[in-house]
Design goal:
24 strands; ten-stranded parallel beta sheet; nine-stranded mixed beta sheet; alpha/beta
């Protein structure tokens, strides 16, 4: 399979290609320097060409998604689309909680080829990978939840980083996980006793361990192993006025930990959905934005990256492994609440959420996300996300891009459409920044791939995966800064002219042309096998005594993850 994409206007920030008219050559699933005379020429003259989209933080498979689809049938009905005659894809259903096939269809139409499932409980990793097998057309890394695991807490309590390192290595293999996810560290453990922790230094009762100790310990282990992605942290006190102080402390608590010299990323910590962690004040009566302080720290730092969690003004579903936070939202809103506890080491909750333009808190949160986009000096530290579906579904990415590219559109919304809190309690009105296509390619392609440590994608250099998106926008003739063009930007980015993954055309001119099995992307640590076997012999009796299943029935069998993309991590001699 050979193609020449001819005369597209290419944006490839990793290789410093900024709107150059050039050809992209594809052969055997890779981008190459030369193709044969048999290559099919596809004329994309003047069209917008980028690498395939990379989403570093979304929720698309796993137990809490299944619970959400069951307890929100109204959401499933909101997105029903019958199968059309001669269509490759099946019917669609769901808005904020789309079915697994629907998830693949929608990302493919948007030109995305890699999507990270950002929170997988080890005990239900099988379930997650089974759902991934129902999602077509994506490469899907999975991040394994460790922030409240009992064995992890025990090793942190004993300051036993050697055994913790071996435990993490083995558990990633069992869960077929790509990296370490930490959610509300120690909070789920406290939730098991009907409580929570609010700050980084609040100990949970059973182990007397703090979130700071968990984050630092797992960060050191991550760098010791040299995993491709850094720790991926949802810190304590999400969504509460005054929480920006905890967020700053979390940024700062790992700044002295050295990055493994063998990894390609820059950061030692990736912070999630920072919009939800950027509030000053003592209550919702006196709340103001803490984003300027966080932005100032990020701009001066070199050890961290983050994703935004931009609010989109939709009726959506909040779901997180931060179960105490979801219970607080339930008490605050009175909306229906579901709880999903998995032996209370990866507790989660769900409630519906209605973000209204005329609601003060919604407008405030919307503006804070945009403050991050506008205030960060280096876009390589940042990823466009909605923490889908928490602040809005992923199909709103094109809408967010239209806001970022047109200051007149953004200020018109802030002034005339949304509640005055958007401008009165944030610094959003101080910015007149407008994103270019090059900037958009960074925060949706180059940066997330680099942050994840996936060096074979997010760019269009020779040897890269031939993951490419082409949009029906004549770049030299189209002005995305005009307010009147915002809807055009959104519509064009929602449906690519071409989506190519591994050199195969999966979407063309509004129609999905092919469905392929999604690849399970995971990290395989090599060199610690003997230590892993010895550790398992020691902990198996405890596991079999206290867990709901036997160790022998634990873990994800190899046949669950076909096809797979295994990232080997060499720890020989560690």
């Amino acid at each position: 399979m050979e193609y020449i994409l001819r005369n597209g206007v290419v944006y490839d920030p990793t290789n410093k290609v900024n709107g150059e008219c050039m050809d992209i050559l594809i052969k055997n699933g890779k981008i190459v320097e030369d193709v044969s005379s048999k290559a099919e020429v596809i004329d994309v003259k003047g069209k917008l060409v980028m690498p395939g989209g990379v989403d570093s933080h979304s929720h698309i498979a796993g137990p809490k998604l299944s619970v959400g689809r069951l307890y929100r049938p109204e959401d499933i009905r909101a997105g029903i689309k019958p199968k059309s005659e001669n269509a490759v894809e099946g019917f669609e259903a769901g808005f904020s909680l789309p079915t697994c096939p629907t998830t693949g269809y929608r990302y493919t139409r948007m030109g995305y080829t890699t999507v990270t499932e950002a929170a997988v409980p080890p005990l239900e990793a099988k379930h997650t990978h089974e759902e991934i097998n129902s999602i077509p057309n994506l490469d899907i890394p999975t991040l394994t939840l460790f922030g409240n695991n009992w064995f992890m807490l025990k090793y942190v309590k004993d300051n036993n980083l050697d055994d913790l390192t071996v435990f993490i290595s083995k558990w990633l293999k069992l869960a077929k996980g790509y990296g370490i996810k930490i959610v509300n560290p120690c909070g789920s453990e406290a939730w098991g006793w009907g409580k929570n922790v609010t700050g980084l230094d609040d100990p949970e009762e059973h182990w007397n361990v703090t979130g700071r100790e968990v984050i630092r310990s797992l960060c050191m282990v991550n760098e010791k192993l040299g995993l491709p992605h850094s720790i991926h942290v949802h810190t304590n006190d999400l969504g509460n006025p005054g929480n920006y102080e905890t967020t700053l402390e979390t940024y700062d608590c790992v700044k002295d930990i050295k990055k493994n010299k063998h990894v390609d990323r820059d950061q030692v910590i990736h912070m999630t959905h920072q919009q939800f962690h950027a509030y000053k004040g003592t209550s919702w009566r006196d709340v103001t934005s803490g984003a300027p302080e966080l932005i100032d720290y990020i701009n001066k730092s070199k050890h961290m990256t983050f994703d935004v969690g931009q609010l989109t003004f939709d009726e959506t579903t909040t779901m997180t492994a931060d179960a105490p936070n979801e219970f607080d939202l339930y008490k605050l809103t009175g909306l229906k609440w579901a709880n999903k506890d998995i032996e209370v080491e990866t507790a989660s909750g769900l409630i519906p959420e209605i973000y209204s333009k005329r609601a003060p808190v919604s407008a405030f949160q919307w503006a804070i996300g945009l403050e991050f986009f506008m205030g960060i000096d280096d876009p390589w530290k940042m990823v466009l996300t909605t923490d889908s579906p928490n602040a809005g579904p992923f199909i709103r990415y094109p809408k967010i891009i239209s806001w970022l590219m047109s200051n007149s559109k953004l200020m018109d919304m802030a002034t005339n459409e949304v509640h005055p809190w958007a401008l009165n309690r944030t610094s959003l009105g101080c910015y007149d920044k407008e994103y270019t296509w090059y900037d958009i390619a960074i925060i949706t392609r180059g940066a997330p791939a680099k942050i994840l440590g996936l060096t074979d994608r997010g760019h269009l250099g020779v040897g890269a995966k031939a993951d490419i998106s082409v949009y029906d926008i004549n770049v030299d003739e189209f002005d995305p800064t005009r307010k009147s063009n915002a809807k055009v930007v959104e519509d064009k980015l929602l449906s690519s002219k071409l989506t190519i993954k591994d050199g195969e055309i999966l979407h063309k001119d509004g129609s999905i042309t092919k469905l392929v099995n999604s690849s399970h992307v995971w990290s395989n640590v090599k060199g610690l096998e003997e230590k892993e076997d010895a550790l398992i012999k020691r902990i198996k009796p405890e596991f079999n005594k206290y867990y709901t299943i036997k160790y022998e029935n634990y873990g994800v069998p190899d046949h669950y993850i076909e096809p797979e993309t295994r990232i080997d991590v060499d720890c020989e001699g560690l």
